[in-house]
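EI: anyone free to look at a 235-residue chain?
SC: sure, send it
EI:
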Amino acid sequence: MRRYMLSCVLVFISYCGNAQDASALFYKLRDKIQSVNDYIADVKIKIDVSFMKVPPLNGKLYFKSPDKMKLERKGGISILPKNSYNLTLNNLLPPGNVTVIDGGYDTVAHRRVHVVKVVPGNDTGDIVLTKICIDESNMLALHTETTTRDNGTINMDLQYGRYTGNALPDRVIFYINLKDYKLPKGVTMDYTGTDEDMMQKAKKGKTKKGRVQIDYLSYKINTGLTDDFFKEKKQ
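SC: here you go
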């Protein structure tokens, strides 16, 4: 009986230690990502949706923490996405106090990652749960799986290179469920239908998945972008 009780205590202590380590890991990753206050990036965006032909988009992506974003297409057309997590990692990481569950270890792109599952402390937002695969040695998120209330489940792969120290990716690939997800207005401006048309086409189509690839060609980091820059200009 004593041995059984001792085993239970040791298992409990081990569980608490792992949970604490997972929490510390998540907050450390989030702090690194949030150390970038703003950036201006030259981007190339490719959208692969079966029922819609969208040519590659070239332009500039402006971001200011925590959630301001503007996409300027080549040619001077500006877009203000309503849901900025459509295009950036930052809003896939729940803000404030969270509950972190240790998911153990896995492999992503031949690299060992620590898996953590994050539940927002505030249940009024769109994010319900985020699973993050973290490269501990470089403190980078290599893959995320985010369950949302309004946009289904969003899977994202991230690749790094020149801006590893700032946790800014060279390439991001989103995998989305088209029947649940709304692509940002303006990104699909060559498509003339409404959001409802898009949803109906996705439900009827043979392929329910979509893929969005963003290549970040260069960054200008912490340039001092102001809130006014992101305000929509009246025509």
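EI: The first strand starts at residue 38 and ends at 48.
SC: 👍
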